[in-house]
Amino acid sequence: MAHVERAVRSALGQSYESVELILYDGQADQDRVAFVDKLAGGDPRVKVFRDTRKLSAIECIMASRAAATGEYFMWLDESSWIDPDYVASGVDYLVHNALHVLVHGTCIRHDHKGAQSEWAPAAVTFEDPARRVETLVGNVNGHDAWYGLHRLAPLSTVPIHPALGFEYSWLTSVAWRGKIAAQPDMKLYRDGPADDSDASNRVTRLGLGNFQATDPWLTVAALQFCNLAFFDDALAHLSPIERARLGTVAADSISQRQRILDEGMMISFAARLFPSEPILEQFRALRSTLADAVLVLRAISSTDPFVQNLVGTINVLCRMRIGNIPMTKEDKDIVRQVEVMWDSDQAMASQNKVAIVSAMYL
Q1: How far apart are CA 339 and CA 73, in angstroms?
Q2: Which of 73, 172, 185, 258 has a C-alpha 20 to 30 A away from that of 147?
Q3: Which residues span the domain enclosing 296?
Q4: Would 227 be classed as within a structural domain?
């Protein structure tokens, strides 16, 4: 509990005066209640919320955000603490930069052996939201920006999914909504390694399904894909093909940089991450949409950006083994259509289209 007190003291010790500190106690055992009440100490800036249920860490995260009343918001957990000017610097930046929705600083990590490492913050500032998303998933190290200061109102509806990597998917959705600033002089301190290597312990603490720890980075990749391709309402105006492209860019970036044990299990993991959602039907519909898009192409051009993005998206989905999804009658009709094309049209363009479409149904 000493680490919790350290985080609380760093929040109450901010030079920015108008601080509201929300302590959301999801444990509710007698010792914990006494400890939290002692931390609050009658300070009017501290608001303690309790639940009669024993909540997971992610449930507490969502509940604390819902309880906040300020214009700006940031999360701290028991492993993190901040310099006295962190909030003041962040507020000042956001006040003077209206297009930015989040600002974060240098992360200084301390491992269990006492070694210290610094992670410089990365900015994501393109005007085009799609480029911001692509930049974030490809270049931002770790998820330390999760602990940055952000505007509460425009980000209050950003989904926080109960899965490993919820911080990554949240940040990706944030990047779609606005620019992310980097201020090196803002200092965040964290205990623990940067790679979240102890997945089993993290899964238990967050109250998640144990299967996620068997291939943690696959879990993160599946979550990123589903969030961008299916779930984040802010992307609803995009075509399914463009949403799928952004999802595969995010998933592929994780696959290229992290150790995934079996990329072919990604769709299966996605279905288990979202058991109440029609995940397989959504992937099946996406497969049909992509097949239709390929079949109407005049040619498979190596210089057409749309064609190359389309083919790249399909390649990643094939690595996910989208062909393992059982076929419906409509799917079988598409397969028969490409079989006829293969037999009747020997032109290279037609043969290429057949090969690309068939790959999604094998």
Answers
A1: 56
A2: 258
A3: 209-359
A4: yes
